[in-house]
Specification:
The chain is built from 18 helices and 27 strands. The chain is α/β, with parallel strands linked by helices. Bound molecules: 6-O-phosphono-alpha-D-glucopyranose.
Length: 614
């Protein structure tokens, strides 16, 4: 939610900042803005409603000469998307400009107090309060900007990553974070600052992840300084960035989402590399073998996640219960945190998050740790908060996911959960060794099988034309295919804005079947598994009510082919691996329907990829 970028050095700040905003647009695209201090000491702020491209157009005839600046792309929380609510916000004396990602919970109290002291506000945002407060403290106490920022942050309740620049001191950026991500890129005589490292990947691979409640003092020509809120100097840990520029580009595809769908054979390969070895005979996962006693003795596993990650968590439940005989509970992180959860030291809590920054998931982790559970994280973004807040964990290694609708991260998460379940089962000896070996062999074949599924793209594109203007969709599945149906429905909703409901197929007769008619297509996920005969009955029930059916079936299926209106055949795999195979055609179906409707699939309205607010 919201992306921030900063630059100080000898280069062209505007170019770095605009390029960086484009990379961070997945975090929000309601408005964009930039603040630059030119060499004559003039602070220029340009901001506009809409995407970064609109800001670029707006700046065409403006003075954008500068060697220092900050910029922002917004996902609106306080105040509607508009020019005046766009960041950067500035102080009343026009000396300071500030960008912010997060929410200031006590902004109303602070704003009222500042209004009483004669300040005028120009926006409805919580952020403007912060910049006005910093300036107020600065003037009142006649202190340095650093001291004013520190004092202001002590008064603030909420989550933030901020960057501040000052007209009268163009050689410095002050940044700070609490619960929202912030990374500094250390270049040669220059510094970059951003919500993640993507804006500066082509300029430097030296990164410093700012910690919670840490202030970064970034000065031209001087070494970076990190300070705690009580003004102690912290050690600087420069890490090497593992990201390449090609991962951040569309590589000839019209959209990141399509690129990411098509990449899945290789991202799955990256995900299993070094983890399934000896021709499938041996499966291992970071953090599980090193904590073997904890996993062997776990009485229960609780998985917390949001959105698509919650759907992979549901698949994780089936995998772990099937293979490890450990009871599993799956919770929305946002519900878990306010449900007075009962967690003990005998529980393992697994947090799944592509971004590693989701605010609710982070809060759930803190609660679980506080109650004595061992917390294991599954994330994609290296160096993000969740891997740092958990006792142990692993990465899915699928590379940056930029399309807002998650695709390759979902299959990566399901793959890692499969390996996790197999590793625990290996420790607990709950899986028959010969079966485990066979499964390992199948996993090694999966990337090639997903490649075959992707070859269905032209058929799915043709099929999408028939259903582009349906107003509602039903997605049904049972067992491992039930979360796949939920995920398929979510994909369609997110990017095509068609209402879609995912349901366990057998539950359909308790309500949703009333909706079935010739106008509402049903997408039924029905691979050959131990529930196949049951789902055939569900398919018949929909057909008997005049519903149109698109079925995802295993190659060679004749029974459903004779009932359904359309079938998409996927290769046969063991039941526990079907979600990785059956989810791909649903990703493609939603993509093509959204494209037919002319929607912006990579940046669907109202959504953002990284949800760092509650
Ligand atoms: C947002 C994204 C989804 C994602 C969810 C959870 O809603 O648009 O794609 O599944 O957040 O994010 P996380 O990074 O925790 O997996």
């Amino acid at each position: 939610m919201c992306g921030i970028v900063g630059y100080i050095g000898e280069g062209n700040a505007y170019n770095v900042l605009i390029g960086g905003l484009h990379r961070l647009e997945y975090r929000g695209y309601d408005s964009a803005g930039i603040a630059l201090v030119d060499d004559n000491g003039k602070l220029n702020i340009y901001k506009t409603l809409g995407k970064v491209q609109a800001l670029e157009n707006f700046c065409k005839d403006k003075n954008v000469e500068a060697r220092v600046g900050i910029a922002h792309t917004r996902w609106a929380t306080h105040g509607e998307p508009s020019d005046c609510n766009a960041h950067p916000h500035y102080s009343e004396d026009g000396n300071l400009a500030l960008v912010h990602n997060g929410t200031i919970e006590n902004y109303k109290v602070l704003k009222d107090a500042l209004v009483e002291h004669g300040r005028t506000f120009h926006s409805d945002t919580d952020t403007e309060v912060l910049v006005q407060l910093i300036e107020y403290i600065r003037v009142q106490n006649d202190c340095s900007l650093l001291d004013a920022v520190r004092e202001a942050l002590k008064q603030v309740v909420g989550a933030y990553a901020i960057a501040v620049i000052e007209k009268d001191n163009p050689d410095c950026i002050i940044a700070a974070r609490k619960s929202s991500p912030l990374v500094v890129g250390v270049g040669d005589g220059e510094f970059y600052l951003a919500s993640d490292a993507s804006p500066f990947v082509e300029f430097t691979d030296n990164v410093v992840y700012i910690k919670d409640e840490e202030i970064a003092l970034i000065r031209r020509g001087e070494p970076l300084k990190l300070l705690s809120f009580d003004n102690k100097e912290n050690e600087i840990d420069v890490k090497k960035l593992e990201m390449s520029i090609s991962q951040l580009e569309k590589g000839g595809y019209p959209h990141f989402m399509l690129k990411e769908i098509f990449e899945q054979p290789s991202t799955l390969l990256d995900c299993i590399r070094g983890r399934v070895v000896d021709k499938g005979r041996f499966v291992t996962l970071n953090g599980v073998n090193d904590n073997s006693e904890t996993f062997i003795n776990a009485k229960r596993i609780v998985i917390v996640a949001c959105g698509t990650s919650w759907h992979s968590a549901l698949i994780g439940k089936y995998l772990i219960q099937d293979m490890c005989k450990i009871p599993v509970v799956v919770e929305y992180a946002s519900e878990f945190r306010y449900s007075n959860p009962v967690i003990t030291h005998e529980d393992i809590v697994i947090a799944i998050s592509q971004s590693g920054e989701t605010a609710d998931t982070l809060a759930a982790i803190k609660i679980a740790r506080g109650m004595g559970a061992f917390v294991y994280g599954i994330s994609n973004v290296v160096g993000s908060s969740i891997p740092r807040e958990t006792h142990s964990g692993t990465y899915i290694h699928v590379g940056p996911e930029i399309g807002v609708a998650s695709t390759k991260a979902f299959t990566g998460q399901v793959m890692v959960l499969t390996l996790l379940a197999m590793t625990i089962a290996g420790l607990k000896k709950t899986l028959e060794p010969r079966y485990a070996e066979k499964l390992g062999e199948w996993i090694l074949k999966l990337p090639a099988l997903v490649e075959k599924v992707i070859e269905l793209a032209p058929d799915i594109e043709r099929l999408s034309l028939i259903y582009t203007y349906a107003r509602n969709f039903l997605y049904l599945g049972r067992g491992y295919s039930y979360p796949v149906a939920l995920e398929g429905a979510l994909k369609l909703k997110e990017i095509s804005y068609i209402h879609a409901e995912g349901y366990p197929a057998a539950e359909m007769k308790h309500g949703p079947i009333a909706l079935v008619d010739a106008e509402m297509p049903s997408v039924i996920v029905a691979p050959k598994d131990h529930l196949y005969d049951k789902i055939v009955s569900n398919v018949q029930q929909v057909k008997a009510r005049g519903g149109n059916i698109i079925a995802i079936v295993t190659e060679g299926d004749t029974t459903i082919r004779n009932i359904a209106d359309h079938v998409l055949e996927v290769p046969e795999v063991p039941e526990c691996l079907t979600p990785i195979i059956t989810s791909v055609p649903l990703q493609l179906l939603s993509y093509y329907i959204a494209i037919n409707k002319g929607k912006d699939v990579d940046m669907p309205r109202n959504l953002a990829k990284s949800v760092t607010v509650e």
